[in-house]
Amino acid sequence: MKQIIIHVDMDAFYASVEVRDDPSLAGKPLIIGALPSERGVVATASYEARKYGVHSAMNIKEAYRRCPHGIYMHPNFEKYRSVSAQLRKIWYDYAVKMEPIALDEAYLDVTYSAGDFERAGEMAREIKARTRSELGLTCSVGVAYSKTAAKTASEEKKPDGYFEIRTPEDFVNLMIDRDVKSLYTVGAKTAEKLNRYGIYTVRDIRTRKDEILERFGKHGQLITELAFGIDDRKVVEYKPEDAKSLSREVTFQEDTDNYRMLDDVLVLLALSVEDRARRHGVHGKGVTLKLTYADMQSITRSRLITAEDDAATIYTETSRLLEQVEKRPVRLIGAGLYNLSPDEGRQLTLDDYLRDPEEGVIEKRLHEMQEHYGLDFAGHLEDILHGRVLYRTIEYMRKHY
Length: 401
What we know:
Layout: E1 5-10, H1 13-21, E2 30-33, E3 42-45, H2 47-50, H3 60-66, E4 71-73, H4 77-92, E5 97-102, E6 105-109, H5 111-114, H6 117-135, E7 139-144, H7 147-156, E8 162-165, H8 168-175, H9 188-196, H10 202-207, H11 209-227, E9 245-256, H12 259-280, E10 282-283, E11 286-293, E12 298-304, H13 311-324, E13 330-338, E14 341-342, H14 350-354, H15 361-373, H16 381-384, H17 387-399
Parallel strand pairs: 2-4, 7-8
Antiparallel strand pairs: 1-6, 1-7, 2-3, 5-6, 9-13, 10-14, 11-12, 11-13
Helix pairs in contact: 4-6, 12-13
């Protein structure tokens, strides 16, 4: 049986959730991300803000230049994750397999649960109706024969849209005279290279297939296949343990050269990484430290571990790695685990028993930090480890070291 795939994409997800929870924001240009006075980018923007050219990943200063009268808000990721979990419960009622792409987007394989495009269309409309009635949100849905076509279809009638692309011929007829950037995998840099060779549309790609294969190699093969409507990729069920790494990082509003404060930040990042790993049911065999310096140069340092990958180990090892790096102003710091595998009651090794006990290292460091910053880290740890509170806490630490 040929594939039938539904692609669901929430409409301006973060902004829509905020409008749902605060109706006074309806109809206003809402920009979620950094504040104009801060360093950062746009996470998402309402459709009213997009009329001014504001879009995700745009530098927040540029967004403010284009839309100075907009309403700017920090994202509330804990709330968005909660809504995303509710969405996935709806999606799983229809999909045999589901591949989440982000909190607000997923591919659903309905080949066998639907059986044909007519039933798949009914499912897609049911998803839209339930999303509106149960969660008060809208989504755009595409139904198609492939992942690329389904994603293209979901974008075709945004917002609150529905579109079908049943065959490769339908896909080609829709796309043939569009800009090369409309094809999946063709980003701005690839489009610029294609344009340099006089290739501007999907039709040009089809006409000059051999030249593209020669110049672009494997990527060129993918581009040309898509231009002919060919995409045999399957929906891959996501499992947290399939990820290669898990990390938490923070970008400072101003660069810092205070490495003692950075070491304090690693305590909170280590706790946050441990919390994420436990919630996903995975453990790691190595730790990583990431730094981005003020000049935007990024470095990553890693170390294999034989001990338990708890917060104490993550902090201790990343702290040692921090001691070894070049000391200059830092823009971003991150800590993480890599070489992940399912946590199925891992057997302790001889090294676990023989290593110097790090018991109390986190408690000791939190006590030191509480004395220094005047913050109740232990009493409010659960709140501090999540979302905006973590960033606000670290910014407070940077300003008040």
